[in-house]
Amino acid sequence: MKTLTAPGRPPLPLWFWGGLLCTWLFALALRFWGLARFNTLVFDEVYFAKFGHHYLTHTEFFDAHPPLGKYLIALGITL
To answer: pLDDT tens for residues 9-43?
Structure first.
């Protein structure tokens, strides 16, 4: 059976994994806390949707940033 520890090193204690889980849950709660208060598009979200639409309609436009985010938005628009 494979383990995540190096050979000869004792496995990490249970309190470590519990602390890691608590930290992750706290970060998750902070990430989603108050998210519903923004009921309008915020700054660059306006541009991402517009650029995603430009990708779908093959409209020429200038964008100085890499296209991955816009491709994902275009995929969401398509779906």
So the answer is: 888 899 999 999 999 999 999 988 887 777 776 66
Whether 65 is covered by a domain: the verdict is yes
In a domain? residue 3: no
∠ CA 74-75-76, rounded to 5° = 90
The torsion of the CA quartet 9, 10, 14, 20, rounded to 10 degrees, works out to -10
> If DSSP states are collapsed to H, E and C, what string results for 12-63?
CCHHHHHHHHHHHHHHHHHHHCCHHHCCCCCCHHHHHHHHHHHHHHCCCCCC
- d(CA 29, CA 37) in angstroms, rounded, equals 15
